[in-house]
Prior knowledge:
The chain is α/β, with parallel strands linked by helices.
Amino acid sequence: MAIIDLVAPEVIKVGLTSKDKPSVLRELLQILIDAGRVTNKEEILDALTKRESLQSTGLEAGIAVPHAKTQAVSALTLAIGISPDGIDFDAIDQQPSKLFFLMLAPPDKSGPHIEALAEIARMSKSKAFISALIAAKNAEEVMVLFGE
């Protein structure tokens, strides 16, 4: 399953208001709740927090991919958040994260989860694409970029 198949305007937030990692997780999760994609906030937040405690999902080049496996979803679910100013997410390169891909997957379906992580890794190699995403002014611009 391609990331574009999971992306919709209602699961994209440009201009995250969070200032720290716990707030980012809650804000991204709230996007999915507001879009009607998930309902069990506490179970999901617990799964995300436990995953982050193992190792930060803050990667390099301003990208973070907080993710967890949880019974609270029946299929791979995604939210995208953009913070042009960046947020400290304990990234590998110690730089602020600006582009967040929150992914939730059911424990018994690893394939789509792994494929999505691999696709994000491929995307991260295109500095121009990542810069364009971070510079997007709204969800529609993000959708256009993913459609290209």
